[in-house]
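To whoever is on call:

I kicked off a structure prediction for a single chain this morning and the downstream step that reads the tokens threw a length-mismatch warning. I double-checked the sequence; it's 424 residues and nothing unusual in it as far as I can see. Pasting both halves so you can look.
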Amino acid sequence: MQQGRYRRMIFTLLALWLLLLQPSPSQARDFDLRGHIKPQATLVELPADSRLQDFSDDPMRDIGLDLRANLSGNESAWSWRADYQLLAQQGDQIELAQTYPLAGFRGTRLLDDDRRLFDLTDQMVDHDDRVVVQRLDRLYLGHTSDRTVLKIGRQAISWGNGLIYNPVDFFNPFNPAAIDTEYKTGDDMIYAQYLLDSGDDLQAVWVARRDMDDDVTDEVASLALKYHLFSGEHEMDFLIAEHYDQQIAALGGSVDIGGAIWRGDLMVTKTDDDSIVSGVLNWSYSLLAWSRNLTTTVEYFHSGFGIDDGDYDPASLADNPELLARLERGELFTLAQNYLAGAATIELTPLWQLTTSLFRNLDDDSMLLQLFSRHDLQQDLQLLLALNLPTGDDGSEFGGIDSDLADRPVAIGASAFAQLGWYF
């Protein structure tokens, strides 16, 4: 308890310093401070036969706040960064996430540092239907030269060529249907990059973590090497990694064909029992339609860890521990093996974009339609609106997987999301 009080006091003082430290324009400074405040609200409808009706109100209502202050600086070849977050949420999804585990694979996830090397999260409020945490999401020291980059500390990295689904991005990836994808959650790691004369580069990452017993062990760590190759208009990636004591090899790349960009990755994961193949292939093309910029994407995704027969009842999920482990770690957000997704973004005005996305599970024919609006109302003020419309039979992924009760699927209906972001 004493340690928790000291840590909370340190976090609070740091937050006040980041928010109030605003030198006048005449004062020279060697750091940069910027961030955002994002209030948001969510409304989720529950079908009449949903098992979630027994644990939550219908519709589910949630409100939240995301405050972030990013402080960075540099001196010659050295740089540093510290990002403070204050996250608050109150409502039915928070309560549901803590009372019914089966809702967690698609519902709200509570952010913590239980498995990270350093516990930089302070849970200030923890009640049945509301949570408030403050944390450091970035905290690293970096050094850059003409050929090298080295960063040590909490940071984020994104690899892979998937635009919607991305199997090679196994360090805190975004949910394919996520609305706010401005910041990935950081991990405690060492990152290094070496640039060759040809323009190719070699990257290395080591991520340390804690196991269920709070011990730092190699069994839950990650070590990855990636070589990025340029060849004319082609780009290729070669990756090898050991991730949670399993070996990974991946090959990917991108190429321009007829003005359209083709991207893809093929990944093999060696588990204790088998070698699992996953992959993604996408096509994207930009054009002028109705005198407006239009970008289209079509993507196929195969998850070797998924279930191919459309049976996601608790017993079937329990028989697939590799899938459950990735769902629990937040590395994977899909239950089946084969998916086809498409997205089209039209620029209604230079400050307003409208995106229509469709996610289809090819193994059970369920779908999710998402309508997403991003509107810059004025400088430093942005409005996000989204509508999600899932369809499918009972027992399907988007129609509602089977629960512990017959004819009571874990089903979520239409949902709406609104977020207003003010940037400073």
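Update from on-call: the warning came from a stale cache, not from the record. Cleared it. Sanity check on the structure: The chain has one domain: 2-17+32-423.
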